[in-house]
Design a protein that fits this description.
Elements (H helix, E strand, L loop, with lengths): L10 H11 L5 H5 L4 H24 L6 E5 L7 H6 L4 E6 L2 H17 L8 E6 L18 E7 L9 H12 L2 E10 L3 H10 L4 E3 L3 E5 L11 E6 L3 E6 L3 H8 L12 H8 L3 H9 L4 E3 L15 H7 L8 E3 L4
Parallel strand pairs: 1-2, 1-4, 2-3, 4-5
Antiparallel strand pairs: 6-7, 7-8, 8-9, 10-11
């Protein structure tokens, strides 16, 4: 490369460094966090999604279920796969420290399991899944997956077309016929809508902040914004233009089965008693008003929608509320 040519920063390094440096936080500390209920809500949503997909996979006749957790982090979904009774799990992530912690969690889970409980087998891979081919790193070169799960990760790959393609290849090329690629990612249309409505290049509240470099023009790849979420995330991310993503997936014979915003997913799934019970058990929504008068946020404005609902004569309190991020 000539000295005069500008080097393009590789944001994968920043992402890996950020997540490697995140400290493990105990349950007591997490319960005091202002994003406690948001985390629980996200986990409830993933639990429902994973549970329903596993039902469909088994309903289609799969006896032994293999799963690829693409961007596994510290293993936050291990218990979900355990409850789902899968047979084999491959955990892959760019952050080596996170993968080590994921493996420790898995080993502890196996150690504490009941004697006659069958826990899925697992393998752990540290790799940049937007650059490296995972199939070359598998213990079993012939392994095929029923499900690839990519939770809050895929948007990092939209830094470039090459990275987005490699990430998609890793997600889809080892899927069995009839297999599923499931995931969660920020809504690019909502982010742009909020940016355009803002008087500056950023928007947010006391818990999160999204900052763009410019507005008015949004390239298909490399459209960077910086996302800061209290205590957890402080990294560059990239918009995922979903129609393009859907088009790219067709090269792997994938077809879109479901796309929903979290609010719509919640409205649909909460109608089922088992999902409602799980939501309460996981404390996925914040009670309002709280018993001790202390809410997760000190801003009354964040609860105006809940207060308006409570002021209706036919409403019993406390009700449960989601802070509007």
């Amino acid at each position: 490369m000539s000295p005069s040519k500008k080097q393009v920063p590789d944001h994968s390094v920043k992402v890996a460094s950020h997540y490697n440096q995140l400290q493990e936080v105990g349950l007591a500390a997490r319960s005091r966090s202002r994003i406690f209920f948001m985390r629980n809500f996200n986990n409830w949503l993933k639990s429902v999604l994973i549970g329903e997909i596993l039902e469909q996979v088994r309903g289609a006749g799969s006896q032994e279920v293999s799963v690829l957790d693409l961007g596994c982090g510290k293993g936050g979904d291990l218990l979900k796969w355990r409850r789902g009774g899968i047979d084999h799990l491959v955990c892959a992530d760019i952050a080596g420290v996170s993968v080590e912690q994921c493996q420790i969690r898995y080993d502890e889970m196996k150690k504490k399991s009941h004697r006659n409980e069958k826990i899925f087998t697992a393998e752990f891979i540290t790799a940049d899944c937007s650059k490296e081919l995972l199939s070359e790193k598998l213990d079993d070169a012939e392994l095929m997956f029923d499900i690839c799960s990519c939770q809050f990760v895929y948007h990092y790959s939209f830094e470039s077309e090459q990275k987005a393609n490699m990430m998609l290849r890793n997600a889809c090329e080892r899927l069995k016929p009839g297999g599923y690629f499931i995931g969660t990612t920020p809504d690019a249309f909502e982010l742009v809508k909020r940016l355009e409505a803002s008087d500056s290049l950023s928007f947010g509240n006391e818990v999160f902040k999204v900052t763009f470099q410019s507005k008015g023009s949004y390239p298909l790849f490399g459209c960077q914004y910086h996302f800061n979420l209290e205590e957890v995330v402080n990294v560059p991310e990239f918009l995922v233009y979903f129609p393009l993503f859907e088009h790219m997936a067709k090269q792997y014979n994938m077809q879109l089965v479901l796309k929903q915003r979290f609010a719509d997913f919640f409205e649909e799934k909460v109608k089922k008693e088992n999902h409602r019970s799980l939501m309460m058990k996981m404390m996925a929504l914040e009670p309002f008003p709280s018993e001790d008068g202390q809410q997760a946020s000190d801003s009354a404005e964040e609860y105006c929608h809940a207060k308006e609902h409570c002021d209706r004569a036919d409403v019993r309190t406390p009700l449960v509320s989601v802070l509007r991020w």
